[in-house]
Amino acid sequence: MKKKIDPTLLELCLGILAYGVIFEIVLLFFSREITYSLGLMIGVALALAGAVHMWWSLNRGLDLPEKEAVKSLSIQNIIRYLTLAVVLAVLIGTKVANPIFTFAGYMGMKVSAYLNPLIHKLLAKRRENSDGSIV
Question: What is the SS3 assignment for 35-90?
């Protein structure tokens, strides 16, 4: 049985990827430092993982009673931020990638959330043009 991806999650992930591509193009225009690009890619990957984790935890939490849902969602939120903090600490310690650009890549989730209405309109218009029906 094939599962369909949630349309909102898809739009959020597409926004994160578009943010990462545009940021990378601008970054390459100004610098060829590989640690900057690697940091950005790690941040975008964390943003994608965070978006999927947020979708999963919200779906799971909304099926729980109110008190349990609040507790579960709070714990999942802490897990996301601790993951980001650990990755940034490792990057600071190892200097493999730039932690500032990793954080900037992670902020792609925020930018994508703000641009979600625009992304939704673009995808709806594209679906309308492809099959002739209104979404």
Answer: HHHHHHHHHHHHHHHHHHHHHHHHHHHCCCCHHHHHHHHHHHHHHHHHHHHHHHHH
28 within domain boundaries = yes
Q: Give tens-digit pLDDT for 56-76.
A: 999 999 899 999 999 999 999
Task: Over range 36-62, report the average pLDDT.
Answer: 95
Residue 129 included in any domain: no
C-alpha to C-alpha distance for 77 and 23, rounded to whole angstroms:
26
Domain that holds residue 34: 7-120
Amino acid letter, residue 96: V
Number of independent structural domains in the chain:
1
